[in-house]
Amino acid sequence: MEFKVTRNPNPTPASEREEIIANPVFGAKLTDHQVVVVWEKDKGWHSAEVIPYGPIMMDPSAAVLHYGQEIFEGIKAYRHQDGSIWTFRPEANAARLQRSARRMALPELPAEIFVESLRQLIAVDGAWVPTPEGEKTLYFRPFEIAAENFLGVRAAQRAEYRVIASPVGPYFTGGVKPVSIWIALDSARAGKHGTGEAKTGGNYAASLLAQQVGYENGCSQVMFLDAETSTYIEELGGMNLFFVYRDGHVATPSLDGTILHGITRDSVITLMRDRGIEVQERKVSLDEVREGVKTGDIVEVFACGTAAVITPVGTLKSSVEEIVIGGNEPGRLTVEMRMELTGIQYGIRPDRHNWMLKLAD
């Protein structure tokens, strides 16, 4: 598929762009261009373009506004020391976007178009990729929406795939500092046979009320329990969780249909198994964590995701308790895994699994 390129006639001045890149705020400033590819039931994918960044012209009856048919991804571009620009495991993001599309009755974008869309945006907005100091990157937001103008309750017959991008720094400011997590005792993110493993906006909307309560209680994220029994830990509003035990093994909630298939999660599991660490993907109850922290059997907890990479968890709080982990200091394995993963992404550590893909020289 060939992409038609229409350059922005009024791009951000270089001096202003450099100021934004020097102190990026997550998602606050967007680059000068966006990618658009259209799908229609009788035509398939067509009309691939790179166009100036700007508002989406949308009819009030557009299906996405009424039935929530939308999915998205998060992936980053990294500038290496030689100036080249790379991304991390884009084929995994492409596959997850396809799984999300399948669950939300949207058309599946071919992986080659997904990867090419990143290349095309970098070809015109590569100057927006920061130098690696301070863990700065360019964050891509690929997304797909139902774009048919129709109020009937059925899968849309027209959709749009787009990519926008924003220069970002660390998701949590303050370096590798343990964060506090609010335990949602009366709110669920997703239920059995629902859309929990799809990366769709409705799941995030369902998390926002509890997240607001968490903020009011000094917490950065919310930990959700299973919707059926409120017993087992699932994930945070936007990240997966890992529990490090004193005997050396690590546990993480298993993927049972309600948890997002985190690409960072999968990468961390692979890197830990490379080290000979036993990683158990299983049900982890809140009772087990509470007791494990109390007895010292659980020595570290960390969260991971594309935006936040790997972040230590220092405290779990709810309306009835406060669980302090490891003296509220980042654990050894947490720090080591973060250094190894970011080292691979920024090209300063060996990429044994061929995860990195060059987007531009």
From TrEMBL:
InterPro entries the UniProt entry points to: Aminotrans_IV, Aminotrans_IV_CS, Aminotransferase-like, B_amino_transII, BCAT-like_C, BCAT-like_N, BCAT_family
Entry's EC annotation: 2.6.1.42
Pfam families assigned to the protein according to its UniProt record, in alphabetical order: Aminotran_4
Single Gene Ontology MF annotation: branched-chain-amino-acid transaminase activity
Listed GO biological process terms: isoleucine biosynthetic process; L-leucine biosynthetic process; L-valine biosynthetic process
Cofactor(s) this protein requires: pyridoxal 5'-phosphate
Keyword Transferase: yes
Catalytic activity annotation: L-leucine + 2-oxoglutarate = 4-methyl-2-oxopentanoate + L-glutamate; L-valine + 2-oxoglutarate = 3-methyl-2-oxobutanoate + L-glutamate; L-isoleucine + 2-oxoglutarate = (S)-3-methyl-2-oxopentanoate + L-glutamate
Top EC class, one word: transferase
Sites of N6-(pyridoxal phosphate)lysine modification: K199
Protein name stated in the entry: Branched-chain-amino-acid aminotransferase
